[in-house]
Specification:
about 220 residues, alpha+beta, Trna Endonuclease, Chain: A, domain 1, Four Helix Bundle (Hemerythrin (Met), subunit A), 4-stranded mixed β-sheet, about 55% helix
């Protein structure tokens, strides 16, 4: 799969997911549809709803992507009606196919996450929960998640397929940002009991789906 086809697949899923949430989605908009404060910057997509506006950027990790995102955040600094949503694409040259974990293995990790929550270790619980989330996602849709996945793509594909609800997807995106900031050294990030308790509910629901068998679509 080429980088272009990967991006097109993600955009197609976004149109479906965000449309179900009441957004009007515009792919690669140009003036006058694109907001004027962007100047000559061409976003991958924008999504508009009565209560929220999203600027969507699909990218791979690199020095150039970091600079682009810094520029976007600067442009959005004085635009309180707009929110930046970044979707990370896994490196195209990643060749390793990951094993699909058994329901028992996923359940064991979720049980360990529960113990961490009960002892107040919310940061450790989030990291273990995210590992369980990707494992459960791969068990549900093994054909689409053969390789390591970005948090954003996991959420987008699951939401587009109806495996998680729009509100669950929103919660997971907020957690994904916290998770990314934390593992990249932003140690002041606050992870709350509510954050991980809500993720635990989502994981248990996904595990019930895994027990019924993978979708393989």
């Amino acid at each position: 799969m080429t980088p272009e086809s990967t991006e097109a697949e993600i955009l197609k899923g976004l149109v479906t997911e965000l449309g179900s949430q009441g957004y009007d989605v515009f792919i690669q908009p140009r003036p006058p549809l694109a907001p004027s404060f962007l100047g000559n910057f061409a976003p991958d997509a924008i999504a508009i709803r009565s209560d929220k506006k999203l600027l969507i950027e699909i990218t791979r990790r690199s020095g150039d992507s970091d600079k682009k995102l810094e520029r976007l955040r600067a442009l959005l600094k004085d635009q309180p009606d707009w929110e930046l949503r970044v979707i990370w694409i896994s490196p195209a040259n990643t060749s390793e196919t990951l094993l699909v974990q058994s329901p028992a293995a996923i359940r064991q990790n979720i049980e360990e996450m529960t113990k961490l929550i009960n002892t107040g270790s919310f940061r450790a619980a989030l990291l273990l929960g995210w590992a369980s989330f990707e494992a459960a996602s791969r068990a549900l849709i093994s054909d689409q998640f053969k390789k390591a996945q970005s948090p954003g793509r996991l959420i987008d594909v699951l939401a587009a397929g109806g495996y998680i609800t729009p509100s669950e997807a929103d919660h997971l995106r907020k957690l994904a940002k916290k998770r990314n900031d934390f593992i990249h050294g932003q140690l002041e990030i606050e992870i709350t009991s509510k954050d991980v308790q809500e993720m635990l509910v989502i994981l248990n629901t996904m595990l019930e789906m895994v027990d019924k068998g993978p979708a393989n679509v």
